Amino acid sequence: GALLVSERIDREELCGAVSPCSLSFEILVENPLELYSGVVEIQDINDNDPVFPSNQARLEISESVAPGMRFPLESAQDPDVGINSLQTYQLSANPHFVLDVQTRGDGSKHAELVLEKELDREEQRELHLVLTALDGGSPPRSASVQIHVDVVDANDNAPVFNHSTYKANVRENTPSGTLVARISAYDLDDGPNGDIVYSFSSHTLAKVRELFSLDSATGELKVKGELDYEETKLYEIYLQAKDKGVVPGVAHCKVLVEVVDVNDNAPEVTVTSVYSPVPEDAAPGTVVALLSVTDLDSGDNGLLLVQVSDVNDNAPKSLQDHYDVYVPENNVAGIPILNVSATDPDLGPNSRLSYVLLQGDPAVSRLFSINQENGTLYLLASLDHEDQVKFSMMVQVQDGGSLPLSTNLSVSVFVTDLNDNAPVVLYPRPNSTDVVAPGTPARHMVTKVVAVDPDLGYNAWISYTLLHATDPSLFSVGLHSGEVFTARHLREDETPQHTLVILLKDHGEPVLSSSVTVTISVDEMVKEALIELTDVAPAHDSRKHLTFYLILAVILVSAAFFITLVSVGIFKCYKWRQSKELFNNSRSTLYRTPGPFHHIDAVRGGFTPPNFYHQVYLTTDSRQSDVLCKKPFASSPLGSHQNTMRNGEPGLYHQIVGTASRLPKPAE
């Protein structure tokens, strides 16, 4: 079990500046099976002298330099480590300079020459100094360098760096020529005394100069060699800026370059098989082989990761289960209107999503399509708000697993209204004529323009304006009602026929309009027709008694129809009583409130919906009669756009002239 040295060991050759220097090994004991790790530390001995880059150095120092000014000196190198490495410097005795020894971050030493007493070129043009480097061995080893100081006339402004310390990060294995940092200094002098040249300071190690280059004109520090994080993690680079004066001014700065680790080392796996072949009856837990894994990288780059394979156990998810989209009508075909977004926390194909519109409304599949890859919903055709206001659809989001999982999202597309429809005139009908009698007072409603706009809201708000009239002073039009009134009293000698051109405008943007021509005839025959209408007396209707007897007969014949016929009889009696009450109430006024106005001219114009009817009630009084226009059973299809007439307008009598003139006169 003795561990022997097989050849001469040189610590500097094996480990360089790395301390401690160690060699690792493993010892395997087979019976019983055990594994031991061992480390041999190579201890340093003081077998190397400090070495200066050159045996002499020359400094040019202006006589105007103030005491306290520092001048870096060439550093000596000692490959030994620890106490055997370079420990201090000594300077030969002189009246002007003292030596200041400083320690770097890595523990190495460097010396600076500090001016203690002002120089006088007239007194002494040159000084000779000796710098000695000593290590910490016993006995110590040393090396010396001759320093010649030339005292020159003053260049009174030295360069000044913007920063005394620059910091930079660079990744290891960065290609040569990559910019690391850009240093900058300025000099207030003019001409050559203000021109600055950048260079490495004497403190900078030779190894650093091999890895980095410095542009003397621009101050750009670039990568020159190959950086290795595992070898050195931080570089301290000392730079100087010197002007071109006869006695050049010098400024110094330091650049700290931190090397960032890159995962450039593969894990090394060592497999040691110690139990082969394995018996078939080997117990669980029997050691078969030993594995050792190492990685020279640091941090996460040095971990050995165990990959966990993915299972499609997550369905696609969306931030919202329902989307509302508002699209203006008359859109351009082919535009995207929505991006349905979903995520799947699974990996690989299990997280690859596809989007499909589920089959439902045929109009949806005809008007909409969805991109299967990114969920963008496209509108394939132009929509019309007046045709359909809302479309509902379902989007299925499915992953790409072998047993795919899916999620359904609902989408509602609302078609917003644009002002794309002009007002449409429902009444008066073309080539129709309204009649008014002479002597009609002012503010009497003659007729009414009824129009609708298929648009919605403000776009459907119609205003009416009298654009042209045969006699502008005779008639006026309600701005929002469309009612045509007499503006003044109608004289007997008025023009028999008047033509009005009425402009209808909505309030959309842009404004759309249409026009209608209203013809009004001033005719004396209207009064005569009214007189004939009031002379009509109600005829006795004996059929009501006959119907009553028939109902009784039917009840006696078939008991099966008893309940049905009783209901009919009750209904008839109820309607008769209702009409009688309306008749009694109508004696206080001549006319009743009409239904929706576009049905008023039904007798004359033939525009009568099936759910609308007129009934004429004549009083038993021979000289009094009332006309009642009953409202329809169902609401008008015009909905909210329909305009109705005001109650109790006496000017409607001319609407039933065509019927009243054909009624028989009562017997004397």
UniProtKB/TrEMBL annotation:
It is a single-pass type I membrane protein. PROSITE patterns: CADHERIN_1, CADHERIN_2. It holds the Pfam family Cadherin_2. This is PCDGK protein. GO terms for molecular function: calcium ion binding. Residues 1-52, 53-161, 162-269, 319-425, 436-540 form the Cadherin domain. It is found in: Cell membrane. The chain crosses the membrane at residues 548-571. InterPro entries: Cadherin-like_dom, Cadherin-like_sf, Cadherin_C, Cadherin_CS, Cadherin_N, Protocadherin/Cadherin-CA. One of its GO terms (biological process) is homophilic cell adhesion via plasma membrane adhesion molecules. Keywords: Calcium, Cell adhesion, Cell membrane, Glycoprotein, Membrane, Repeat, Signal, Transmembrane, Transmembrane helix. Gene3D superfamilies: Cadherins. One of its GO terms (cellular component) is plasma membrane. It comes from the Eukaryota.
